[in-house]
Design a protein that fits this description.
Elements lengths: L2 H27 L6 H6 L2 H21 L4 H4 L6 H13 L5 H18 L6
């Protein structure tokens, strides 16, 4: 993979992670008393999250034009590393040591899965 492809991959994964934080903010804004349709139509965080996901999808499609899915897809697992960090930093959610250990295993798994292939 080229440096540009790595950058696009990481941008896609970060956009997915940011989208998840925005979905959480959208969920926080929803109240049981209001009709669901109204909550969806007037929830700014939800619309921004959907837009971020649309951009991430466009990045992903561009990326898949140039590299095999088997090489690109393992990087998506990095979202499982970034989402808890962003949830902690931006939403003040607890970050447990298990999150960090699991994140390290994910990083190791991505490296094992694609590490040797990216050098060729």
């Amino acid at each position: 993979m080229s440096l540009q492809q790595y950058a696009l991959t990481i941008s896609t994964v970060l956009a997915l992670a940011v989208g998840q934080v925005l979905f959480k903010l959208a969920a926080r804004n929803m109240v049981d008393a209001a009709p669901l349709v109204q909550q969806i139509l007037f929830n700014g965080h939800l619309w921004v999250a959907l837009a971020v996901y649309a951009v991430a999808t466009a990045f992903w499609i561009v990326l898949l034009r140039h590299i095999p899915l088997a090489l690109a897809y393992p990087f998506v697992a990095l979202a499982f590393f970034f989402v808890p960090l962003l949830g902690h930093w931006l939403l003040q959610e607890p970050l447990r040591w298990q999150n960090m250990v699991g994140g390290m295993f994910i990083l190791l798994g991505v490296w094992i899965s694609v590490g040797w292939k990216t050098r060729t």
